[in-house]
Amino acid sequence: MMGIISFLVCTFLFLIYEFLLHILFFIVKNVYTLNKSFNRFVTTHPDKKRLIVLGGGYAGTLIAMKLENEFEVTLIDDKEYFEFTPSKLRALVFPSQTRRMRSNYSDFLPRSIIIKERISSVSEGCVRAGGREFPFDYLVVSTGSRYSDPQSIPISSASGSNSEGIESKSPLISTREKDIHLQHSSLKGSEGVLIIGGGTVGVELAGEIAHFFPTKKITLVHSESHLIQRSPPRAINYTHKFMKNNGIELILNDRVVSRDENGSFYTKSGVQIRSQLAFLATGNLPNSEFLRGGHYSSALDSKGFVKVNQHLQIPGTINVFVAGDVASIQEEKLCQTAGDHAQLIASNIRALEKGKKLQSYHPKPCPMLISLGKFDGILTYRGFSMTGFVPAAMKEFVEWKEMAQFYLPSWLISKKKSYSMEV
What we know:
five-stranded parallel sheet
């Protein structure tokens, strides 16, 4: 009885807490009007150098925000808005979340030039996009990464041979699709869901679906013996217990290798899984195709990530930097590390202009927040783990904090050191 009362009290307090965050977000968002007025009075530099930022993810937007008052900043991206990607999974089960996780570039980059085009190529001193050329004095490559193409899992006929032109009855969706929230109706109408990949994203997706659709059958396939295998043992055990308590079927030490036109998926060990909807959360691939065959093709490693030196420059260059997931750095691909990249690159570009010494980047362990639905979660840092309600509340706050900064006056952003926690 006491357990039920405690749960109800915690839920009530959480809802009040979330309501207050919504009010705070509304207030900060309306500061945006003041931001636009203030920017008319910001000191300008008559002979600004040209800085091009490729990609409007976390690192790219922060760099543009920090430097747009000192440089002629051009941000090139194939969309017109910033999207806080850690919130995308919640938006899948709760579509109204989309309003909170997006902000138009024009809203918080009033002094930058926004080009909505796909990047074709990069040569020495020039970017080509949408049939146009954009010369630069400084370049930041921050195009991020994506998961493997869902079509990389072949559709096979009943006989087991690959069949071309067959449309599977089970849509296979990447969890990094731009408009994943549009899949809400498909998710709501499906009886069963298959999640391929048991890393942070796969686990969070399972948690969100289990919380918002508790009667839905969920199957999660992971190639390792444990979920979120790089986490501390306590966090791993808690995750496995959560899956068991919520009726989520785990298939471990196996991988999905094919599917058929009748809505079945097959694992390497021969297990057949019938599912009306499947989500792919494996195979991190860098968005660096535009560098292949060009001036900087030698900077790509064997997986397509872009090599960097200790200053986050492409080796052999002075004015070309790399930030975020696309950088070939052995570390977790998190918002926090992307924010650290942005801070260092902005400082180093300023240092180059002033003839000062450049700072070096040193990867370090980062805290992580992993959600398991709305009221449950995990916080990990080094060997430490915290589980339950508190990490879930922390996740809500971090999300609010990260999106609120895009509505603060740009003079505050340019001076603000940005560090965030992955959610």
